[in-house]
Structures are given as structure tokens and as C-alpha cells.
Design brief:
Helix content is 23%, strand content 33%. It has 327 residues and is of the alpha+beta class. It has a domain at 6-129 and 153-216 and 285-323. The protein is globular and about 60 Å long.
Length: 327
């Protein structure tokens, strides 16, 4: 067994404990009954809901409500978590502060099935700072070196009332082929639970290198958008041309700007939907690949699953979903 701190061992143990407990709740017979009650209602009322609600994701609110209902019923909750900087569901238990987010992903063609490969989160849903990994890079252009550092700074506190704040994601994957219209059957495909590690675990076991990429960059639209930048000059405003910028992936280095609060770090811009180039000093939301979190080790170096999945359908080589009992 590695010589980690007592704090690490305790949090690692608690993460496995609540992964087991939540998965037991989310795979129980009564949860299944209510989940498929939602599925049947959505199938029967799909067209009306889409017309009145003006959205194609008609499962989102119902799944959030279901998760909240079962956590409130099944866990011994001591108190609410008072900070709004948290997941949608955040409650105080006897040994942790539990954060659970419900996500819904459409698996139909030309929608967003690729999102199922990763967990997507905001700053108020994680406690770790990815200091050694994504966001730092060295770029050489025309013999000159540019250092990029776009941090992702969490706003979820790692502890509250001396209890660790733990984060989980429940994902419901559904199939609704509203784009190609080749398969008209609406169905729930699979469900999963993911434990995103606490900052102590990310530091000790993942070397603070766990984020795979950013989904959204925080863009500077006015002088108060990014702190501690203070009063940004007019040079930080959006520009329409990339003529003097250095393209690097989906980033554009602006050599004319000096970083407002990181010494020797280059300022980057990202292109918005209007075709303008806005300064991006921080990551806004990020992804962790589920494969990174799949295999976890307990305090006896035994493997436990940080990602749990239960499938109602499997997809064959022709892209057709067929019913299964479970994995």
C-alpha cells in the first residue's frame, strides 16, 4: 500500500462508499419502475412536449427530479449545502457533502452521442485544480517562444464544516432521432454513474493531470469578466480579424497583448459563433474522459469501478439498437 496521508485514505474510502451506495439506489427496482414511468410518459407525449416546451431534450428536467427525489428519500440528510457554487443537488450528510448532477445525452445520429465518452463539468462541480496538465503549453512560432496557460479554477470548496465535498454525475442516455428521422422510436438506452475524484485524490493519484480538454473557454466581454484582471484595457475587446494572431489548434495567440495577471504568459483568443475573436483567460467548462476514471484503487490496492453502467439497449455494427437485459 502506498504511503499516502490519512486524509487521502479517508476520502478514497468515502468515494468508493458513496459510489456503491448511489449505484445501489439508482439500480434498485423502485428506481427502475419510476425511470421507465418517465420513459413511457415521454414516449406518449413526445410531440406535445416538444411543441410546448420548445426543446428536443424532453428528458432533462424529469431525470433531475428523479435523482433529487431518490437522494432525499434514501439518504440520511443532515442539512442543505448553503453555497450556490455547487452541483444542482448538494446536501450535507454525516461524513461528506454530496454533490450529484444529472445529465442527459442523446445517442441518435448527428446529435451528441460522442459526449458519452467524457464527463463535462463547470467550475462549480469539481474541487481540484488541474495545475500540471491541460491548459499549459509552449509554442514556437517564427523562432519566438510563446507560453500558454489557460487555467481552470474550481469554485466548489473542497471541504465544508470539515467534511470533504464529493462529486458524482448520473447520466441518462436516450435515443431520439429527431434529425435524420430514420428511427422514430424514443427510448432510454443506458444509464451510468461517475465519481469525479476529490482534489486530494487527484493530487495523489492523478498528479493533478486529469482534464482531457476544455469544452468552453471563458471569454472577456468587459473589464469585469475575469478576476483578478482588474481594469482591462480596450485592447482586450473582441476583434474581427485574425491577421495578426498566431493560430494554435482552436486558440489564437495575440502577441500584442500582455497577460493581465500571469507573468510571461501569452494572451489567447478564441473564435466565437459570430466569427469574432475574444480574449480567453480561463477555461469555462471542461471534460474528463470516462476511461480515466473507470479503474480506481481502494486502500488495499483492490480495483473498484469509478464509472458504473447499466444498459437497456446495445448497438450493433449497423448502428441498430437491440434490447438487452443488462451487461
Amino acid at each position: 500500500m502506498n504511503n499516502f496521508s490519512k486524509k487521502y485514505y479517508k476520502i478514497n474510502e468515502l468515494e468508493e462508499k458513496y459510489t456503491d451506495l448511489l449505484w445501489e439506489i439508482f439500480t434498485s427496482d423502485e428506481f427502475e419502475t419510476d425511470l421507465h414511468k418517465i420513459e413511457n410518459y415521454l414516449i406518449e407525449n413526445k410531440d406535445e412536449l416538444k411543441d410546448l416546451w420548445k426543446t428536443n431534450n424532453i428528458a432533462k428536467v424529469s431525470i433531475e427530479r428523479l435523482i433529487r427525489f431518490y437522494v432525499y428519500r434514501k439518504l440520511n440528510i443532515e442539512d442543505i449545502y448553503p453555497s450556490p457554487l455547487s452541483s444542482d443537488l448538494a446536501v450535507v450528510l454525516d461524513d461528506i457533502v454530496l454533490n450529484v448532477d444529472a445529465k442527459t445525452i442523446n445517442m441518435a445520429p448527428k446529435t451528441n452521442p460522442g459526449d458519452d465518452k467524457a464527463i463535462h463539468f463547470g467550475k462549480d462541480q469539481i474541487t481540484f485544480k488541474n495545475s500540471n496538465g491541460f491548459g499549459k503549453e509552449k509554442v514556437i512560432h517564427n523562432g519566438r517562444e510563446y507560453l500558454i496557460n489557460i487555467p481552470f479554477i474550481p469554485t466548489l470548496k473542497p471541504y465544508y464544516d470539515e467534511k470533504p465535498v464529493l462529486t458524482y454525475f448520473f447520466t441518462l442516455n436516450y435515443f431520439d432521432d429527431w434529425k435524420t428521422m430514420q428511427d422514430q422510436e424514443y427510448k432510454f438506452v443506458h444509464k451510468s454513474l461517475t465519481c469525479v475524484p476529490h482534489k486530494v485524490v487527484v493530487d495523489k493519484k492523478f498528479d493533478n493531470n486529469i482534464i482531457s480538454n476544455y469544452k468552453v473557454y471563458s471569454k472577456v466581454k468587459n473589464k469585469t469578466d475575469i478576476q483578478p484582471a482588474g481594469n482591462l484595457s480596450k485592447q482586450f475587446k473582441s476583434i474581427k480579424s485574425d491577421r495578426n494572431l498566431i493560430k494554435h489548434g482552436n486558440l489564437y495567440i495575440d502577441p500584442s497583448l500582455k497577460h493581465p495577471f500571469l507573468e510571461n504568459i501569452s494572451v489567447c483568443r478564441t473564435k466565437d459563433k459570430s466569427g469574432n475573436y475574444q480574449v480567453s483567460l480561463e477555461g469555462g467548462s471542461a471534460r474528463i474522459l470516462k476511461t480515466t476514471l473507470q479503474e480506481r484503487k481502494d486502500n488495499n490496492n483492490e480495483t473498484w469501478k469509478g464509472v458504473r453502467t447499466f444498459r437497456y439497449y446495445k448497438i450493433n455494427e449497423d448502428g441498430v439498437y437491440t434490447r438487452v437485459t443488462n451487461e
